[in-house]
Structures are given as C-alpha cells and as structure tokens.
Write a structure and sequence with these properties.
single chain; mainly alpha; globular
Length: 406
C-alpha cells in the first residue's frame, strides 16, 4: 500500500509546480498588498469552482490510459484544432511571463548581472538541460524537493509576519469595482491556482508517469495525488496573500511593472518589515516558486503541442517534443528581447486570456468525463457534477461581467 502510494505521487506535484508561480508570488501578493484580506473570498471560490475541471485531467488519464487531448480528438477534430490555435497563441506569452519574473528574482538572489534577458536565457537553458538529461523522471523527482523547499520557506515567512504584526486584522471582504480593479480581479482569477489548460498538462504527465514506472495508476491514487498538489496550491496561495496583506497593505509602496525592480521591491519590503534574517527565506521561497514554474511550463507546452500535432496528422513525429521545446525557447527569447519593457502588461495579457478561455476547457473536460468516452465506473458522482455545472456558470458569468465592463 505504501509502495503504490509513493509510486502514484508525482503528477500532482508537477501540477503544483506549474500552478504555484506568477499566480501566487505576483498576483496573490499584489491582492494582499492592495486589498488586504479582502480577496480571500475570490481565492477560495476560484479553487472550489475550478477543482472539478482540474481533477478530470488525472481522472480521465487513469480511467482510459489516454491524455485529455486524445479525448478532445474523440469529441471532434474541430475541438482539437481550436485547442491547437489557443495554445499556440498563448504558450509564448505564458513562458515569457513566468520566465521574466524568475529572472528578476535570480538577479536579486545571485547578482552578477541585472540583464533580465540574459538571466531569462540562462534559466531557460538550465531548464532545457534538466529536461534533456533527465526527461520526465528527473522533473518528477526534482519537483518533490522544490515543493518541499518552497513550502518550508513560505510557512516560516508567514509565521514571522503573523508574530511581527501589531495591527488588528480587518477581514472585511471586498468586491472590486471600476475597470482597473475588475481587470485585476479577472487576472487574479485567471491564473489562480492555474490556467485551466494545465489540466491537459496533468493528464499528459499522468500518462508519462505510467510509462516510466510501468505501473498503471489507479483512479483513486491519481485523484489522491492530485488532491495533495491542489490543496498545496490553495494553502500557499493563502500564504502569499497573507504575506502581502500583513507586510505590504497600506505601506504606501507602489509595485513596479519592471521585472527586476519588482523582485527587488518584493524582497526588500519583506526584509524591512520582517527583519534582515528573513531575506534568505523570502528569496528562496520566491525563486523556487518561479523556477519550478519555468521548468514545468517549458516541459508541458511542447508535450501538449507535440501530442496535438500527432493527433491531427495521425503520425508519430520523431523529434516533435524537441522541435517544440526549441521553438518555445526561441519564441520566448524574442518576446523578452523586444517586448519585455513592461512585465505587468505581459502578465496581464496572459492571465486575462487564461480566464476568458477557461469556460472552453471547463465545458470540454466536463463533457468528456461524463460522456461515452469515459467508463461509467470512472465518471464523477452527482456532487462533483453539480459543482461542475455551478463552476461553468461561475466562469462564464465572470467573463461576461468583465467584457461588459470594458
């Protein structure tokens, strides 16, 4: 029993590694800094309503031995083409957004240069080496240590902030109004805990896990593994929001949209309020948060594009994964080289696009997991189905609300 549990762990932590990044370090911290504890309701609701659609990724993989992309192909070639276009349109912006934040933190933590394009190139190259040398297995093992380091350092930072706080807590919840505040809310919800297409990545990692271990993961173990990663993303999301609220709310500090300046502000503001000794914990927590996301996104998008291409042309592409990973590397480098002046714009575009496309993935995942392509015994129960329907209404409703407010 213990052995099967340990074998099943992996994809859920990769999910956490992909999820805990810009959404937590940048968006959650900003939410706490600008609204105090006022957006905890949004963080909790989006986790609840997105939960079924993320869970359907590993559930479908365990039930069928296939990725969600294989399932989308069964729903119709047009569905897969729509995904292909959406993913191609967003993959470079997403990679650029997470890499530039990581580069800003690396420049603060390791020094030697403030050139964020150079740092981004170095970090992407290191990520590429990890994937070339170790492929899925190294990524799987590495993520366990990264998530543990991240969790430990973040919890210490939160505890210090709580004990250092002298002001009374104001837990009044806020519904943002006005275009600027509403745009922030939608961006916050877009990548919290992650874009919904990460459910596709999760299903790919689950199938890859079965290939490397030569043991088919049971649905119960797959869901349990996912729940560990998902609960972890929720807890750390709350932690970063608390840090923002406890340390930065009403501090008078205005965050820069420049990657390096933002990283410097983040670390210096924490150390100013918590003490210089906290610098190492904040720096490690922040950097490991973003580096884990940089690695996992660099692995996942090429895997998804390679699988989609194979399904569309009905042919195995020998070096398809490496083609897409090099293509992503070059495309991201070009974006950062020529369009990285405003980190905030990059992040805003990526996060809002993710929220507006979320209903598309939610409906597809629900239709696939409750339809004829998933064995009855592996389909979700009535409670999860009701939660899914409410979640779809929530995602569509907020998208319409945002579009009408523009």
């Amino acid at each position: 029993m213990k052995k099967s549990f340990l074998q099943s762990l992996g994809p859920g932590l990769l999910f956490a590694g992909a999820a805990i990044g810009v959404s937590h370090l940048v968006q959650s911290t900003r939410a706490g800094a600008e609204f105090g504890f006022g957006l905890i309701w949004a963080l909790l609701l989006v986790h609840i309503f997105k939960y079924p659609f993320f869970q359907f990724g590993p559930r479908y993989a365990a039930a069928t031995g296939e990725t969600l992309l294989d399932g989308y192909r069964k729903l119709g070639k047009g569905v897969l083409i729509a995904y292909y276009i959406l993913n191609f349109a967003t993959m470079f912006t997403i990679q650029a957004a997470v890499t530039i934040v990581t580069a800003g933190l690396a420049s603060q933590l390791f020094g030697f240069t403030n050139d964020l394009v150079l740092w981004s190139t170095i970090l992407m190259f290191i990520s590429l080496l990890f994937l070339v040398v170790g492929k899925y297995k190294l990524l799987d093992n590495l993520m366990k240590y990264i998530i543990l380091t991240l969790t430990f350092s973040t919890i210490i930072a939160v505890c210090v902030a709580l004990f250092s706080n002298k002001s009374p807590f104001d837990v009044t919840q806020i519904l943002p109004s006005g275009t600027v505040e509403l745009t922030f809310l939608i961006a916050f919800l877009g990548w919290m805990p992650a874009p919904l297409d990460v459910s596709i990545w999760h299903s790919i990692w689950s199938v890859e896990k079965d290939k490397t271990t030569v043991v088919k993961t049971k649905r119960r173990d797959a869901v349990f593994d996912f729940n560990i990663g998902y609960i972890g993303t929720l807890c750390l999301g709350i932690c970063f929001l608390l840090l923002g609220a406890l340390v930065m709310y009403k501090s008078g500090e205005t965050f820069s949209n420049k990657g390096g300046v933002f990283a410097s502000q983040l670390i210096k503001l924490y150390t100013k309020n918590l003490g210089e000794f906290s610098h190492i914990f904040i720096a490690i927590a922040a950097f490991t948060t973003m580096f884990s996301t940089t690695i996992t996104t660099m692995d996942a998008s090429p895997r998804a594009m390679n699988r989609t291409t194979k399904l569309l042309v009905n042919k195995e592409l020998k070096f398809g994964y490496w083609f897409w990973i090099i293509f992503l590397f070059i495309g991201t480098f070009l974006i950062l080289k020529y369009f990285m002046d405003d980190m905030g714009i990059l992040i805003k575009i990526a996060t809002i696009l993710s929220f507006l496309t979320a209903p598309f993935y939610a409906i597809l995942n629900f239709k696939l997991i409750t339809g004829i392509h998933t064995p009855k015994k592996h389909q979700p129960g009535i409670i999860l189905k009701i939660l899914s329907i409410i979640g779809i209404i929530f995602l569509i409703g907020f998208s319409i609300w945002y579009l009408l407010s523009l």
